Amino acid sequence: MILDNVVWHALTGPQRAFAQGTPCALRFDPAVAPFAALPDDASVDAWSALAGVVGPGNIAVLFRADTDPPPEWDVVTSIAGVQMIAPDYGGAPGNGIVELGSVDVPDMLALVERTRPGPFFARTHELGRYVGIRDGGRLVAMAGERLRCESHTEISAVCTDREYRGLGYATQLVGDLVANISARGDTPFLHAMAENSTAIHLYETLGFEVRTRIDGFVARAPAAGEGA
To answer: Taking Cα atoms as reference points, which of 197, 175, 198, 202 lies closest to residue 188?
Structure first.
């Protein structure tokens, strides 16, 4: 299924405008997202191509269900995760929610720095619709759309300032995004760290269910002269 290798199918599909690389190894523009990707059947040649895309000794961040790098690649770190999908939940538009765009990037980056929801860069908001909640002008919660492939859209960067947690802001933002995603005929999905039971429970109350385990890992390409 395309969701098992969603980054590849995003970069070869609806988000190809953000792709850099070759026909058998791609990555997002680094100003947009950190992820790299290989075809569903990742051959040795594809890994060699990926080494050329990221550069000798540099890292690739991969996010898929079923591949391991060749031995000459060094796995720096790995993260156990789950992929959740909401096939039957229509969501609901929220109240007091504002659309976020390029003028809001400094506030978005500041909120991400305070809350650490995961990778979010200066141009990440270009991937889809981002929404937030402000209090007295201060951005205190946000969420948005990141990966998009055929008929599926990922919800990401769900974060709330610590002092505003427990007020239902994440529920409102995710519900609003789900409503918009569903209205255009896509199925919403998201990812969570496997150990984050609080987030997983929240998403389950919103109609999401665990589809599969999806692990992320950071791998370092062979240094120049080592071969790939």
So the answer is: 175
- Residue 227 falls inside a structural domain: no
For 104, the 3-state DSSP assignment is helix
pLDDT in tens, 158-195: 999 999 999 999 999 999 999 999 999 999 999 999 99
CB 147 within 8 A of CB 154: yes
Overall pTM > 0.90: yes
Q: Residue 23 maps to which CATH number?
A: 3.40.630.30
Separation of first and last alpha carbons in the chain: 28
201 and 123 share one domain: yes
- Region of 104 please: left (phi>0), alpha (psi -120 to 50) or beta: alpha
The per-residue pLDDT for range 48-59, each reduced to its tens digit, is: 999 999 999 999
